[in-house]
Design goal:
24% helix, 693 residues, alpha+beta, four-stranded antiparallel sheet
Length: 693
Amino acid sequence: MQTLLKKIALNNLTLALIVSLPFWFLAGRYISKYTLELSGPLSMNSIYKYLVYNDLDNNGTSDVIYFGENQLGNAYAKVFDPAHRGQFNTSGKFIEDMPVMPFFADINDDGFNEILFFTAKDSANIFLNIVNYVEDSIQEFEVCLAGVPGKRDLICAVTHYTDLNRDGSKEIIFFINGGYALQPRAIYSLNPQSGKLKRTPLMGSKLLPHIIADLDNDGYFEIVCGTFTYQNYFDTASIPYDDNHSRLFIFDHNLEFKVPPLEFSNIRSYVRPALIKEAGEPFIYAFLEKQGDLKMPDKHYIIGADGSIIQEKELPAELPDFNIRYQMVEFGGTIYLLDYSGNLYRAQSGLELHRLRNFPQFGNSFFRVLDINSDGRPEFIFNHRITGKLSVTDHRLKHPVSAAQSISNIRWVSPWLDVNGQNSYLLHNENGHYLLAWSRNPLWAWRFVIYAGIFAFFLALFVIAGRMQAYKLKEKLRIEKQMHELQYRVITAQFSPHYTFNVLNSISSHISTQNNPALYNYFSRFIRQLRYMYDDKNAVTRSLKEEIDFCRDYLGIQKMRFGDKFDYHIHIGEDVKTNLQIPKMMLHIFVENAFKHGLRPYEKGGLITIEATTENEKTVMTITDNGIGREAAKAYNRENPHYSTGRGLQMLHEYIALYNKGKKEGIEIHIDDLVENGKPAGTRVTLILHDTI
């Protein structure tokens, strides 16, 4: 079993798979299904204050609309269109500390959108401006007066253009909310054809964006509006419906109360309505978030057309210490709730919450739902409150992708359609304008090909590496086999029977003369040589010390045989690395050649010197003799072929060549003929040994 597992683990397919995994993970970060790019702040001429996009002529491409102030300080709109380059000046100024937030609608039914935006005049008059860029005209409608002199912290926004009272003429629906300006706090309808203006009754409640629907199926629209407890209307006696309580208002098509307001809480809170259907009937879904007493849970309700509470339920307060615990967004009749921990829910029948996903990374984020790619399905946008990180998921809440750039405090968004039909959104905050582009990654369709390519690359790499390793192993075994064969031949040639018999004859001679101490020394040296020869006989190398000791025993035995014929000296430097591994019998062959060929004719006076030193971090070995020289030795061997074949030195060179093969630094051999007074004076063999051998 272990053998099988080992075989599987070392298989090329397994190794390629293991190595491919981190590269697949890395590639996955760049081959996400979607890409998200956030660019900005967009560069804009300093004479302009705001930039928006809209397909004014409905040709499938967004047009650029700039808003700025002219030399008189009055607001204007400018459309960049090849056919219409006019600048539309108003008689008012932009409302302080409020983004433009224009609305686009085809007011005169000519197939082109008009531009609607608000301005202020004479510090109190609020105007709704309608720009018809095709006819190069602008209409200004005075809609209200600001309540508190010197305070113009107003929020004005057009929300709908619809036939509210079913009289065949559409109305512009908008709301105006005063902050410290207090008034107006109302919803308005304006008929641009007749100029007729209506508004909701006077109240102190600060209204939130509203919904329009025919709740009771009477053929007329109702307007449902939530409120926010701003808590700055202290004179509660002089005006109805103060802003110390959150309420839900239902107005009829004439902007009068359809039913009495529904009051919820007297703490800091807001009520946000949405339209849902159950069993085919329309109902109001109301979300109540309490921001004053953090111990009180948030709630949600189902409310009928008559303003009665049909059902209410508390939301789980898993994080009671946080100010904003839930956010509610409606898209296509579906209610989504995001809590502070990143849990995303869908409100179902009976106010049951179905948790769709948990996104810990999106906790403490602002939450929006938009149809970015115009396919009728929602995309979910998360914008972290602290870091500003912007992320988007698809309609299945899968494939989240984040923008490299951060953005905070998004005030409003507007769609933008480029010439390729690619939907994007323009985001606005206090720093300027940012373009958000979310699209399908073209590499996504090729992801499996890319993953397979990565795997195939590493598989091929391991197959090639395996074959190269197998070749190197085969070559190594071949070289080792040759080295063993050469080593055996060298040993056989050098440690010949002739030498062995000569030694044994000498031992016999000593025995006959009863020279016992010499006999013991002689025999001990010979036994050591035999042990060196046959112990670990398959080893290719041995240490420098062992090789020198072998040569010392060899010379000692020859000295005992031939007496005064020669002498020898061995000197080893203190810094020499004697544990260095060298080819077996290498020194011995050169030493034996020095004795056998160099000193052959001498009766006495021969000398062999062995030295080991360290030079430039290399070990240098020299074997020097004062013999007859190589040329005289060769001549003698030619005349006496039975004396020596000369194959020993040749086999040694072949042996060292094999040993050096594949090594960065091998063994260097230098042989020099010594000359004195013009005559041969011996031979010096120099061996340079590197630490890496």
